[in-house]
Amino acid sequence: MPKSDPVTHTRTIRRQQLKEMVPLADSTIFGMEQRGEFPRRFALSSRCVVWDLAEVEAWLASRRARPIARGQQVDVRHRRSRPVRG
User: Residue 69's Cα: distance from chain center in Å?
Assistant: First the structure.
C-alpha cells in the first residue's frame, strides 16, 4: 500500500486571538493586509475569518528583528495654525 503525503494541519486564530497578539486597530490591520504588509485573512464561512498562526508569528518575528524607523519630529513652532508662542 503506497504511503500518502502526511496531512499538515494549519493552526488558525480568530480576530480576538489576533488582537491579543497584535495590538493594532482593525482598520490598521486591514490596510496592512491590502498593501501586502500583513498576513492575509481567509474565510472559513460567510461569517468567520481567520489568520494562519504560523504566518502571524513569522510576521511578528520579522518585525522584532527589523525595527521600524520613527518619523521625523515636527517642530510645532513652525506650524501655520495654532503656532506656539514664546
Answer: 17
